[in-house]
Amino acid sequence: MKRKLSLAALLLALFVFTSCSKEQEPATQKKAAETTEQKAAKDDCADVHWSHQPGEDGPENWKNLCDGFADCGGTVQSPIDIVTGKAVKGDKLAAIEFNYGKSKVDIINNGHTVQFNVSGNNTVKLNGKEYKLLQFHYHALSEHTIDGKHFPIEVHFVHKYSDNDFAVLGVMFTEGKANELFKKYLDHFPTTKGEYQSDEMIDLLSLFPENKTYYYYDGSLTTPPCSEVVSWYVLKAPVSASKEQVKQFSSILNNNYRPIQPLNGREVLLFEE
Fold it and tell me: Tell me: the pLDDT tens digits for 6-53?
């Protein structure tokens, strides 16, 4: 009789345990799903507000605003100060091979910069790889410094090879002769979020200095998410804009430059044309 009671108790315990496990299983799965959704939400930074100005949403806190901005606290960040006396001759570097044509005018103020979206198949060959030009945009003051010195404006030509391989060509501006592109379009640059389009064509290669000597280093995007996927080519020779053009353009951009980032042992190479 005792044996029968023990067997009955064991069967009852197994039934209760199985029932509880089945009841808990959906709850466990739900919790896991919620955790996955929460992680995805933290990685999705599309609606996260960030700014170039110091403060809670400023450059010093970008890495804390969203999990997807974690790279902003990385060790291979841009921009940097290029110390010309420490640049090493890049024996394996090659001249930039431009395959640029013309592009329609599509100017966007996205709240962080003034950007020209580029149409057509414009490419550059950089050390054996062909990158496609996506857009170019401006920063004032310059993001990179040369021997500790900022320039009034820096333009970035953003190229893509793959999702994990971008190349950016940076060109500095000095005050001097009026800039031809600014002559035509500076008055059309949206001063707040907005867009200006025209069927006129821009000769893209005319936006570069004649001499294409450059400094090269491995770095990142200079705005969130600060992905460390960029090969940087900062041209040594600048282009120019008039004092009035620099003043007008700088008032639109409102100091949209990221502070200089530590080099952390990276080497800056020099290719001389």
Answer: 544 444 444 444 444 444 555 555 455 444 454 445 568 989 999 999
Distance CA 239, CA 152 (A): 11
Q: Taking the model in full, what pTM does it have?
A: 0.85
Listed in sequence order, the residues at least 6 apart from 182 whose beta carbon sits closer than 8 Å to its beta carbon are 241, 242, 245, 249
CB 134 within 8 Å of CB 222: no
The partner residues of 164 in beta bridges, in order of sequence, read: none
Nearest CA among 110, 225, 229, 66 for reference residue 163: 229
| CB-based contacts of 59, cutoff 8 Å, min separation 6 | 52, 72, 258, 259
Buried-state track 28-40, b at ≥16 Cβ within 10 A, e below 16: eeeeeeeeeeeee
- Catalytic (active site) residue 156: no
Q: Is 116 exposed, middle or buried (0-12, 13-18, 19+ CB in 10 A)?
A: buried
CA dist 22 to 19, 31, 129, 144, Å?
A: 5, 15, 56, 60
Place of tokens 């001249």: 95
- Residue 56's H or E segment, with its range, is none
> Which residue in the list 49, 52, 112, 150 is annotated as catalytic?
112
